[in-house]
Amino acid sequence: MFNYLFSLFSNDMGIDLGTASVLVYIKGQDIVLREPSVVAMEKDTKKVLAIGSEAKRMLGKTPANIIAIRPLRDGVIADFEATERMIRYFIKKVHNRRTLLHPRVVIGVPSGITEVERRAVRESAEQAGAREVYLIDEPMAAAIGAGIPIQEPEGSMIVDIGGGTTEVAVISLGGMVVAKSLNVAGDEMNESIVQYFRKKYNLIVGDNTSEEVKIKIGSVYPLEKELVMDVKGRDQVTGLPKTVRMTSEEMRIALTEPVKAIIEVIKNTLEETPAEIAADLVDRGIILSGGGSLIRGLPELLAQETELPVNLADDPLTCVARGTGAFLEELDNIKVSRKENL
Ligand SMILES: Nc1ncnc2c1ncn2[C@@H]1O[C@H](COP(=O)(O)OP(=O)(O)OP(=O)(O)O)[C@@H](O)[C@H]1O
């Protein structure tokens, strides 16, 4: 009975601390918060003005004395203080809406972050009132969230393509056998699109526009029905507003570089995978997670390049958060079985 009441009020939470967005999962419930990883602050005083969705709206539109930053960039913590403020803000936001006890918090972090960065993340969560803090590498959390049976003695490959990083890991017996991280993912795709418009059409478009184009007509493999979109921007030469008609075929050209880099890191990881485990991958293939994996035709392209089966996880954007949630549930099992063994 006590255990039941405890879990009812405990608010234990899992957090996907992503470079593009932060997701919070509450144990026994679901994902309760999903906001961009953006902090807006006064330039001189560093006073925080807004965090999350409100701050994202300010990106690129801020007056001179306000800056809106992404505290986690390229899979590392670019601004410690802003990261801490953001973690504290999101934990409190979720926590205050609910009840009572200090929660246990599981945080999915990019596997490339340093010990110092890990400590900073842990301390921020503790300061926000966490009773216990566990850090889990994003590829591990993504694999759990994608439903990969990570404890089995058979290898699986997860490729998690987020905003700032692509993380590739081969997992077997609950551990990462080979893991690689690359600073090329969804953000870099946006950047390539910006460059393409500038070079080919002298058109200046902002980050938000390039992301919208990517999501609406982005493609990396021929589509059954190709797509078209009118894109508005500013002419680099005349300075006047201009519209360009963009197609999904052209998007494949625009996205060549980042996609090539992602294929290369996957191939390098495969090359370093021990033969026995590589053999497992022939059957089990590659599972894709993260928002960047939603680009049209990626499974088909990767299957062609690696000659392995490639599948998209269910709801790729929430894999890491759901993985941290599943890890929370596991924590209880571990504790219960420890007690039973006493
Ligand atoms: N339908 C879509 N097609 C293509 N890209 C998409 C789509 N939906 C989201 N994205 C991209 O996914 C990226 C964000 O993915 P996600 O939220 O998984 O990243 P993150 O976990 O915050 O980042 P990281 O894993 O690098 O820490 C963004 O670049 C976004 O543009």
From TrEMBL:
One example of a Gene Ontology biological process annotation: regulation of cell shape
Binding site for ATP: G163, G164, T165, E211, E212, V213, K214, G291, G292, S293, L294
InterPro entries, per database record: Actin (IPR004000), ATPase_NBD (IPR043129), MreB (IPR004753), MreB_MamK-like (IPR056546)
Pfam families in alphabetical order: MreB_Mbl (PF06723)
Subcellular location, record wording: Cytoplasm
GO CC term, one of those recorded: cytoplasm
SUPFAM superfamilies attached to this UniProt entry: Actin-like ATPase domain (SSF53067)
Statement: the UniProt record of this protein carries the keyword ATP-binding: yes
Gene3D superfamilies attached to this UniProt entry: 3.30.420.40
Primary location: cytoplasm
UniProt entry keywords in alphabetical sequence: ATP-binding, Cell shape, Cytoplasm, Nucleotide-binding
GO MF entry, a single one: ATP binding
Function comment: Forms membrane-associated dynamic filaments that are essential for cell shape determination. Acts by regulating cell wall synthesis and cell elongation, and thus cell shape. A feedback loop between cell geometry and MreB localization may maintain elongated cell shape by targeting cell wall growth to regions of negative cell wall curvature.
Family of this protein: Belongs to the FtsA/MreB family.
Description of how the protein assembles with itself and partners: Forms polymers.
Name the UniProt record assigns to this protein: Cell shape-determining protein MreB
Organism of origin: Endomicrobium proavitum
